Every structure is written in structure tokens, then in C-alpha cells.
Amino acid sequence: MTDYGHELTFGTFITPQNENPQVPVQLAQLTEAAGLDLATFQDHPYQPGFLDTWTLLTWVAAATERISVAGNVLNLALRPPAVLARSAASLDRLSAGRFTLGLGAGAFWEAIEAMGGRRLTPGQGVQALAEGIEIIRGIWDTADPTALTVDGTYHRVAGVKRGPAPAHDIPIWLGALKPRMLRLTGRVADGWAVTLQYVGDDGLVEGNATIDEAATRAGRHPAEIRRVLNIGGAFTPHGRGFLQGPPAQWVEQLAPYALERGIGTFILIGDDPRAIQTFGQEVAPALRELVAAERAAAGTAPVARRRGSAALAARRAGIAYDDVPAALAARAVEPGDREYASVRSGYLRAGRPGLVLRPRSAEEVAEALAYARKQEVPIAVRSGGHGISGRSTNDGGIVVDLGALDGIELIDERTGLVRLGAGARWGQVAEQLVPHGLAISSGDYGGVGVGGLATTGGIGFMGRLHGLTIDHVRAAEVVLADGRIVRADAEHHPDLFWALRGAGANVGAVTALDLAADRVGDIVHSVMLLDASDTAGVLARWGQVVETSPRELTSFIILSPNRGAPSVVARVMSVYASDDTDAAVAALQRLADIAPVLDHEARLTPYSGVVFPTQPHHATGGLGPITRSGLFTHLTPEVSGGLARLVTEGVSYFLQLRAVGGAVNDVPAGDTAYPHRHQNFSAVAFGGGVRRAALDEPWDRWVYPHAEGLYLSFETDPRPERLRDAFPEPTLSRLRQVKRAYDPDAVFNTNFPVPPATD
């Protein structure tokens, strides 16, 4: 008797017939409407009566919204693995993670050979499949910066570039009957796909035993392999035999396969619409309920908490892995898991956390924090992981990843009030608001997470007209250090609401925010490339133009050394937040006059064309950047000269200045925990070396004496003086009082920690 504890899923096995090509598509849509989880299709490229399965999978993924799609199973003998890997990753990204890769070694060799494939013996087919899987997974592994080489007997790649990364960790299921294929499944696969009428009950037991033994020898837990069973039958008013009867009989007869034969996924064979509907609406929910009750009574552990010896050996000290709450265990990622490479790092810093928890609700965030507090390791909270400081990951600690809290809801179109999950990305927010004529100024990159930006500041491309992102926050849902979930706004916890807008990472885990969007139509987006050989002069002239331009113009400038001539180039990215192209041209012409123009593009576009949507990527991080940040009221000769020296003398390989001022400075300094309401410019310099002193020493000499504070999100200097630069008095004293009230034990202590007040 075997129950691997997999959450039950259900699907269909649809014939890809091409006589009426819309029929299999409609059956897949019915699969989704019936509440099932996936639609699968045979793959016989040599069969002229069938649609090409890969084309059909792509078409079905586009015609559905929720279900996963898979070949049952794809014929690797006629699909080169390197091409298949990129096709699979592309489909997975296009479908937002709704693809599963079912693979077979090949069976109908005469037909395969007739199509141009190579005839293989059974043993050769297994070896070829193993080589193909190595190539496929290698191409998906974008965390490895090296080129991929696999010198196989049947499949080879020599120095191929990796990527793209799939949207999720694509499971690989193998169709297997014979011992060699079963052992390969145990060693490397994520699932075993088999048809009941071919294998029988005894074959299921023997197949499980073979897979389990191979998995254990490979250092894996047998529960890492999902068991997928294709079943056939008929729904009839009265029972006539196995899976020949009413839905209740199906539930009774299938339950032992989940509880005693380890089956986690049931796939219904056939193209009968009524059977699909009955299977999804009556059998699946009843079988889930029955199996859940039996597992609860038996104390069966969820599959996510079962890991093999190799994964167990990778666990870190100080974390009680067996105590992870059940609601979080299924999605938790440990160092030994294959998904670990995709979640361990941030955008610019490589992390090595001991555990990544991925809650899906505020209640689960509270559970995650309660669990994490009991461990003897650091805690990091991540929304998008794009922060320059890299503090959304750690080494050896716990990361609470809020990426699943990615909801975007328009609450009131008239007032522009929207509710955003902390894990949503600003590009998706922009895309969804544009059809309503709304936008929120939000940084400069669509992949940034909502939670980090909207609790720190948010210096965006429309800031001079519409202010900081935090200036649009009207309320927040917050999980406090003690586990309480509260709403903070002007009337409820107003002191907490004040602190969240500028120092949110210090006082709680924000899970959702209500923001007031602005009425924004098309805008003008401009990118200029300038000769910045007169580096200090270009900065000074750029600053003067920005300060004297209409508020509709917000401009960013990036300076970097150029190996050719000129010695320094400037990239000026500007937005004129209006569709008045004549006014935009006049404003942009003034910018073009500050230096010789090497290139210029400008276009009228929705805001989503500037901060455009991107899919979450597998961040690989790095050593972590060395940066310094400063705020300035004017770009005086001293300021411009000091910043210019950082570039011209090779101290900084990337220097960016962003315009603030305008609407940013309309907000009184004491209204939020971001007190910098008189400066007009924000600057960040990235150091080119590995030593902090290589940037800190020249910055402190040439720039810091003229700075008037800093922008926290762009600062990585850990010295305690930076806290007072970010939060000058009386802001810091007020923050310490809020910290004492809401986080007296300093649980949230990784992002320029504010010490609780002691008086």
C-alpha cells in the first residue's frame, strides 16, 4: 500500500484528430469549464489523421486560461531536445506556467524511421531519452552562466547558450512500461505516466517498486515522482463493472488507486463531452474530498515534506524543516530542490537562503513569520526581489517570498482606486490600468515588485507631475511582527500608515495596498544619446533644464564611460506626461541643446509602453552591487563636478540621476516617513570594483559634503550614518516610536534597521 501524498489533479486525454480541427480545442475548453486541471494529447507525428501535437498544445494554451497542457507523451525521437527545450520554455512563458512536458522514448520505429528519425533499440531509446532530458534541463537552467555542452551518443550540444527560463519549474513526466524506462523515471523524472489498461494493477505495484528503488538509489524520495494514470470507462446509470457505472461508483473504485497505488493524477481517456463534464463536476471533487479525509485520518504527510537523502543533506543549520506549517510546506523551497536556483537570489545579489516560503494569502504570511521567528536564522521579506540593496535574500536564513500575492483589482474606476498585491509587478499594473485611462508613476522598470517600491518611495517617470508612488497610497494590509493582520490608513493605525510610506520594510510585511491612480492618457517617451565629454557641464545644464521645465517633463540621465569617442556618453530618458506633442517637442528640444546629440528616439505611447510588463525571471544575482546614493536641491558646479569625477576617473561605471521636485515637493516633509521634500534630484553611483572603499572614499570626498539625504532603495553602504541620511530628525525619532509600538523585537531588521525607541 502506497500513498505518496500528492495533491490530486485530474485531466483529459483527447484525440488530436484533424478531420474537424476545432473539436479537440473545444474539448480542451470543456476540460477547463468542467473544473479539471489539464488537457493532454497523443503525439504521433507520423499519423496523417492527427494534428501536429505541438501546434495543438500551443493553440489550446492560447484558447484557455487556467488548465495546463501536456503531450501524453511527446515523441522525443522526432523532436530534437534542444529545440524542444526552447519551445517548451517559450510556451510555458506565453501561458504563464501552464505547460507540462510528457516525454516518451519512441515505440513505432518503422513509422519514426519513415519520417526521417533514427531507429533505435529499446536500450538505445532509453539512453537517448536520458541524454535528451539532460539537454532540456540544461537549457532551462539559466542560473548557470556557462554554455551547455552534452556529448551524448544520440543527442549532443556543444557550447549552446542557455535559456529562456520557463515561467515555472516545468515537470517532466515519462511514459514508461519496461524496467529500464522505469529506473530512468526514478532517477530523473518528475512523473510516471502510464495507461491502466496496458499495465494493470500488478504492473502498477511492480512499476512503483522499481521507480521507488531507483529514486532512493539516486538520493531522491519516491514521492518526488508524481504517478499519472490514464483511465478509460463509461458513465452509466447502473454499475456494470470497473469504471462502468455512476459517478459514485467511479469515486469508490478510484480511491484505492490514490490511497494504495500512489496515483496523484487521473487522466480520462476519450472524447465524450458528457463524460468529461461528469468527470470534472462529480468525480473529481468527490474523490478529492474522500482522499483528503482518509489522509487526515491516517496522518499522511504532504509530498512537499518528503525529500530524498540528497535534498536532506543540503539543509542548513538553525532551521526546523519538519516544523514548516502544512499550508506552506507544499510550496516551500529548500537548497536541495530543483526550484532553488530560481528563488534563492535577487536581481543584483546572489543569495543562499536555507528556506524560501511562498505564502498565498495574508494569513499564510502570518504563519510564515510566526514559524520564521522561532528559527535561529535571519528573515528576509521579498515582493519582487528587484531591490538594488539585495536585502530580499540572505545566506542561511529564511526568505518569505510574497510573489504569489500578485492581485490587481480596480476598486473604483471613477476615483481611480486600485488594490494591488505586494507581489504584483508594476508592468502588469500599468498594462491593466491603461484601458481605463489610469496610471501610477512607479519607477522605471516593469519587473519591479509593488511592495518594495510602494513602501520606500517610488521615483518614477511621471514623478514631477504626479509625485512619488507612496504619495498615492491610501491604505495597506499589513502583517505585523506578532502575527496580527491589520489595515493601516488615515483612520486606522495612522502612525503605522505614516511609517509604511517611506520605511515600510521596517515595521511590517505589507501584503496589499490601495492606491489612487491618476488620469493619464498617452504620453511622450524620449531616449537621447548625448556626447558627454564635458561631463560636469552636461550634468549642470541638464539639471537647469529640468528645474525650469513644465512639470509634465520628468527626466533621468545615465552617465557611463565609453571605450570609443566620446569618452563619456549620456543616455537621457524622459517622459512628457501629456499627449500634447507640440509642448513635448519644445521641452525635449531644450534637453537636446545641452550637448551634441548622437541619437534620439521619441514616441507617443501609453504608460505601459514605458514601464512595460515583464514576466518574473529567474534572478541569478551576483556579488551584490556597491552603490552610494544622494539627494540634491540643485546641480551646482560642486555637485556636478563631484559626480562627473566619479565617471571620468573610473570610480563609477554607472551613474544615474533622476529628477524629483515638482509634485514630489508639494507634500509636507512630515506627512510621510519619506521626509525629502525640497530636493530636486536623486543620484546613485555604482562602484566598479569589489572593495567598498573604492567608491566610498571618493564619494565621501567629492559628493557627500553637498548631499542633502539619500534615497534608501539605492543605497548599499551599511554604515550607521546612512540611517540618519535617509531619516533625518524628527523623522527618525518618530520612526523609532512606531517601531517600538509595532515591532519592539526588531523582527524586521534587514533593510537599514530602525532601532525601537527605548524611552
TrEMBL record:
Q: Which cofactor does it need?
A: FAD
- This protein's source sits in the domain of life called Bacteria
* Annotated GO MF terms: FAD binding; oxidoreductase activity, acting on paired donors, with incorporation or reduction of molecular oxygen
Question: Which UniProt key words apply to this protein?
Answer: FAD, Flavoprotein, Oxidoreductase
Under the heading InterPro entries, the entry gives: FAD-bd_PCMH, FAD-bd_PCMH-like_sf, FAD-bd_PCMH_sub1, FAD-bd_PCMH_sub2, FAD-linked_Oxidoreductase, Luciferase-like_dom, Luciferase-like_sf, Oxid_FAD_bind_N
In terms of PROSITE patterns, this protein maps to:
FAD_PCMH (PS51387), OX2_COVAL_FAD (PS00862)
| Keyword check for Amino-acid biosynthesis | no
- Asked if the keyword Hydrolase belongs to this entry, the reply reads no
FAD-binding PCMH-type domain residues are 349-520
Q: Which family does it belong to?
A: Belongs to the oxygen-dependent FAD-linked oxidoreductase family.
UniProt protein name: FAD/FMN-containing dehydrogenase
